[in-house]
Amino acid sequence: MKGQIGSLIYREWCIMKKSFILSGTAVFCIMLMMTLFALSAKYGNLARQIDGGNKELKTLSDMFIFSVTFLIPYCAMAAALDSGMYISDIRAGWTRYSITLPVSTKTKALAHTLFLAIRTGAALVFSVIVVASVNAAMGTAFNFGMLADIGIICILSLLFAVMTEICQSLPKDEILYKKRQNICGMVFIGLGLLLGLYMAKASTKYTEEFAAANGDEPVELIPPELTDKYFAFRNAAAPFILPVIILLIIGIYFIVKKNLDKQKKL
Amino acid sequence: MNDYENAVEIKDVTKKYDGFTLDNISFNVPKGSIMGFIGQNGAGKTTTIHALLNIIPINSGEIRLLGLDHIGDEIEAKQRMGVVFDECPFHDLFTADQLARVFRGLYENWNYETFSQYLDRFQLPRKKKLGKFSKGMKMKLQIACALSHGAELLVMDEATTGLDPVVRSEILDIFLEFLQDEGHSILMSSHITSDLEKIADSVTFIDKGKMLITGYKDDILMNHALMKCPKADYAAIDKNDFVSARLTDFGAEVMVSDRAFAEKKYSGAMFDPTTLEEIMVYYVNRAKKEWS
To answer: Which of B50, B90, B102, B153 to mutate to probe the A interface, most A CBs <10 Å?
Structure first.
């Protein structure tokens, strides 16, 4: 069974390798843009606008860290999504062929879920390393709150995985089933874009209003009450993040197994 | 390893769909033989093969593969079987070497040496992505995968369809080599009856979900004949004595299923040996009885 799980994971890896490279490239590009932004904040035009005060520079650094903490894990988690794999399996004819293999549905479901867990785990570790490195470079300590932020993004990503798996079990004539790959992918990309747009808008607002205020108190990127609310939620949710992640992965295993069983009842 | 007489035993298998029923199908593939499973498109060949591979559940009946229950001993039976479909089921992203790595863990008896020999024989590249393979190359690769884990039974669904005659001939040779081992058996569905005529030991013919003929190919070909007669003589033939008749401007070609009986009863007529293809065509038109 171990050998079969290893083989099935290797197969999924071969198929998803391309997605990993694309996600890695996206993360690298975002990192590059953010680094340029940070350098500009420290030494460039942006710094000149800020009048050199430590307080303002710190706010920009916070913004950078804020972006890294949310955007990098978000992009990294995209690699954990596999909404397209089912489609390519069906197109290639693997879904039917796999039933002729001497592998139980339990083993297949376990391999699929295990690979999802490995991908999610790798994305988590990668995100923690990037966020911690950026924090260290900016002179801030990586704290438990940031880990919780990454954990929340991880849950969000796993919820997308749940959504993808549930879409597989829908009746074949449902529009949601036919468009499942597009819907899941578009919702994920859409949310990423919204997050990015919000940050872009916040930074523009910041520089404009800061210039207008000409050195007065720096404008908050996010309204303080909203930040406080989020921090309160995060602190309350923090102890449950890991159990929720584990529960979601177990849930995915059962959905996958049910879907595989269902394939035989067509 | 269990002992068995028939590599495949299908008994009274029924599968119902809306608008189609696979109705009480029964046949055996004796150990060490190759059975051709013929019928026109939509006759139920793929449904039968899907049923025996447990890709679809059956409504009733019994299926045994290599002497094992096709559901209760599914994993064990599948360890000892190879399956080839009409379309290559592997993603275009894979290379032959990567596939070998996948299969190594899936089959207990996977043998890379054998796989490698097939790759060399078929002149298949190891590092090239399958997306750049031709249909013939993909089919050969699928066959190489099916034959590299010591399979005792090979199940093929339209495996030679869409291939050029040279590739088909090469593949048929491989099947004949596979059958050199007395413990090896093949069930091969196809509507290219000429292939089956070359290599099959026995034949099962189904149409619209119903089984019409099953038995040794030579017996089937020997028992059936095309009786050729002028129109005037045709009118005197009892309709119950033949499968169907093709009427032409010159007379009638009548398919009989009991040649000895027909030769005795209609001694003045001319009887020609027939082919599986002709048998298939005449049986498909059996409801019309007369066609042109």
So the answer is: B102
A10 contacts on B by Cβ (under 8 Å) = 98, 101-102, 105
**What does the block give as tokens for B292?**
């042109």
Whether B98 and B155 map to the same domain: the answer is: yes
- The two beta strands, B202-207 and B210-216, are antiparallel
Per the listing, tokens 């096709």 go with B70
A103/B54 touch (CB, cutoff 8 Å), yes or no: no
Cβ-proximal residues to A223 (8 Å cutoff; 6+ apart), any chain: none
pLDDT score recorded for residue B151:
93
**Residues in A lying within 8 Å of B, measured between beta carbons:** 3-8, 10-11, 14-15, 17-18, 88-89, 92-94, 96-97, 99-104, 264-266
pLDDT value at residue A48: 47
Question: Which residues constitute the domain of residue B202?
Answer: 6-217
Q: Is residue B1 part of a domain?
A: no
Q: Which residues contact A111 (CB under 8 A, 6 or more apart)?
A: A4, A5, A8, A9, A12
- Average pLDDT of every residue of chain B: 90
Provide φ and ψ at B108, rounded to 5°: -60, -40
> How crowded is residue A188: how many other Cβ atoms within 10 Å of its Cβ?
20
Q: Which of B264, B258, B263, B266 is nearest to B220 (CA)?
A: B258
Is the pLDDT at A177 greater than 90? The verdict is: no
Contact residues, chain A, for B89 at CB < 8 Å: 92-94, 96-97
Q: What is the pTM of this model?
A: 0.80
Of B89, B101, B155, the CB nearest to A92: B89
For chain B, strand residue ranges (E) read 6-17, 20-30, 34-38, 60-65, 68-69, 81-84, 153-157, 185-190, 202-207, 210-216, 225-229, 244-247, 252-256, 270-272, 290-291
B179 and B87 inside one domain: yes
Q: Quick: pLDDT tens for A7-64.
A: 999 998 888 887 777 777 777 777 777 667 666 665 555 544 444 455 455 555 566 6
Residues B163 and B244 in one domain: no
Q: Which of A7, A88, A97 sits opposite B105 (nearest CB)?
A: A7
* Cβ-proximal residues to B23 (8 Å cutoff; 6+ apart), any chain: B14, B209, B210, B211
Tell me the longest C-alpha to C-alpha distance in chain A.
72
Query: What is the distance in angstroms between the Cα of A85 and the nearest Cα belonging to chain B?
Result: 10
Do residue B118 and residue B160 come from a single domain?
yes
Residue B68 lies in a domain: yes
Contact B243, B283 (CB under 8 A): yes
